[in-house]
Task: inverse folding
């Protein structure tokens, strides 16, 4: 079972944890991404995320489906936020339950790594002296 | 060929619009579009990557476009 959400509302790890709960699970791994206060020694004031929403949801679904197969996962929940986020807020949560521990960690890592490569979501960092689209330039 | 371009992130900044109608005469594939687009907007060449989506899926350079297709420009993604 897969749960994908792309939302402007605050994310809650408990929701993801509850979704992936299963009597067949030997473990659950949860990755929680948080907005940090600096990048390359520069103070970050806030972040803004925007998404090509229908395609982003589709790509998130594909990642979850691949992870289900690859790691024999029981349930996967991927939530991502859009809009303006302050320091300490949560832009992404990935929760995976699997029969055995190792696969839960691996599936969770696969999901976040692939999300960062393929899902059409863009992050802008705001500084004292300007703003920049993250990773846009080499 | 005339297509509709939709732009997000830095691509929108480069086009200075989120939706434009774009006309190109040489060829009809995504690869041809990329050439025409970077010629008109050289800023695209400075990006770490430049991909395109049609029908909510990534399409490769050899994908053949049709008149009035909606093509979404996907600059380097940075979710998570």
Result:
């Amino acid at each position: 079972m897969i749960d994908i959400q792309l939302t402007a509302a605050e994310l809650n790890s408990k929701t993801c944890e509850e979704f992936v709960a299963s009597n067949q699970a030997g473990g659950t791994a949860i990755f929680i991404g948080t907005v940090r206060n600096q990048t390359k020694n520069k103070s970050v004031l806030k972040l803004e995320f925007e998404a090509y929403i229908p395609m982003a949801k589709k790509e998130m679904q594909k990642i979850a489906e691949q992870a289900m197969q690859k790691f024999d996962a029981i349930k996967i929940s991927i939530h991502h936020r859009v809009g303006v986020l302050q320091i300490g807020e949560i832009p992404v949560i990935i929760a995976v339950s699997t029969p055995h521990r190792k696969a839960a960690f691996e599936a969770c890592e696969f999901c976040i790594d692939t999300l960062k490569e393929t899902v059409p979501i863009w992050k802008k960092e705001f500084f004292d002296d300007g703003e920049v689209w993250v990773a846009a330039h080499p | 060929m005339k297509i509709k371009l939709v732009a997000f992130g830095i691509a929108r900044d480069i086009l200075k619009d989120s939706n434009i109608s774009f006309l190109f005469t040489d060829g009809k594939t995504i690869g041809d579009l990329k050439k025409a687009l970077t010629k008109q907007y050289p800023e695209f060449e400075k990006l770490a990557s430049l991909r395109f989506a049609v029908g909510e899926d990534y399409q490769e350079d050899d994908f053949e476009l049709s008149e009035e297709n909606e093509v979404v420009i996907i600059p380097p993604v940075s979710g998570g």
